Amino acid sequence: MLSRPLSAVVLALVLVGVLLGAAGAASPPGERARASAHDSGPDGPHRAKPTVVLVHGAFADSSGWSQVAAQLMDQGYPVLAFSNPLRGPGADGEYLRTFLSTVEGPIVLVGHSYGGVVISNAATGNPDVKSLVYVAAYAPAEGESVAEANHLGGGDTVVTDHLVLRPFPGAAEGDADAYIDPAWFPRLFAQDLPRRTARFMAATQRPGALAALGLPSGPPAWAEIPSWYMVATQDRIIPPEAERAMAERAGAQVVEVDSSHVVMMSHPRAVTKLIQRAAR
After folding, report:
1. Pairing mode, if any, of strands 79-82 and 51-55?
2. SS3 for 182?
């Protein structure tokens, strides 16, 4: 049996708990949700940042985004790197569209090289994608192929003269996996990276289906979503003239960098800054 003073203390604590619970219940659910959403920890209240989804292109994989992803995450951005199948605009775009349906909240969608084709197809009609960022990337019009886009603005590329083709199961007649000849990879794809790094990238490159170069793209997301574009002025995969033409056609905000095709590796800070601008 509790003593009288102890019983009084217990009763007082119970009454305080009931009053606090009632006060909490009286607060509108919306206010409680907003308070939770703005609870940011040691740095005080802040708005949630959009998720940045990074999409690699052909002859590469998601590891090319490592420095950019690290910088974005250090600044509080949620980051996801999408593994691009590299089979063709329609199939890859649908795969990314399905992937994006699992991401909650606003999205900044970033594509490098052929990854630009994929984001252009996947984001069309998606209200959660707030901005598109093309990093030395294709931004094709409806019905346009990668091969056709290479000639925009009078540009030209010799990369298709230096491909190694290897069969893959289920390929249509005439199709194959395309790799850049490792002997040419450093000078075409990554001439401003250390040669040791470029040689390793050549040995580990992820191939794309040859057919993907000639397949038409679908309705472009850049026609309805604000876009940003980084032109790599020393690009030997996508001609800089074609990059400028695609950026202008898309009405993109443009930044030019003196870089090879892999600008996210040779100039990661510049790419990160462009993504941050698109995320505001």
Report:
1. parallel
2. coil
For the chain (280 residues), the mean pLDDT of every run of 10, in chain order, is: 39 34 38 34 59 98 98 98 98 98 98 98 98 98 98 95 97 97 98 98 98 98 98 98 98 98 98 98
At 108, is the secondary structure helix, strand, or coil? Answer: strand
DSSP lists the bridge partners of residue 50 as none
Angle at 245 between CA 239 and CA 251, to 5 degrees: 140
69 and 55 Cβ atoms separated by less than 8 Å = no
Tokens of 112: 């490098």
CB-count burial class (<10 Å; 0-12, 13-18, 19+) for 6: exposed
CA distances from 95 to 85, 98, 252, 280 (A): 8, 5, 25, 27
Give the Cα-Cα-Cα angle 12, 13, 17 (nearest 5 degrees). Answer: 120
Main-chain dihedrals φ then ψ at residue 35, nearest 5 degrees:
-60, -40
Q: What is the CB-side half-sphere exposure of residue 82 using CA atoms within 13 A?
A: 33
- Separation CA 139–CA 80 (nearest Å): 21
Q: Give the pLDDT score at 15.
A: 34
Dihedral class, residue 136 (left if φ above 0, else alpha if ψ from -120 to 50, else beta): left
C-alpha–C-alpha distance, residues 255 and 230, integer Å? 5
Tokens standing for residue 114:
């052929």
What's residue 190's pLDDT? Answer: 98
Tell me the β-bridge partners of 5: none
CB 252 within 8 A of CB 229: yes
pLDDT for 186: 98
H-only helix segments in 38-134? 66-74, 89-100, 115-122
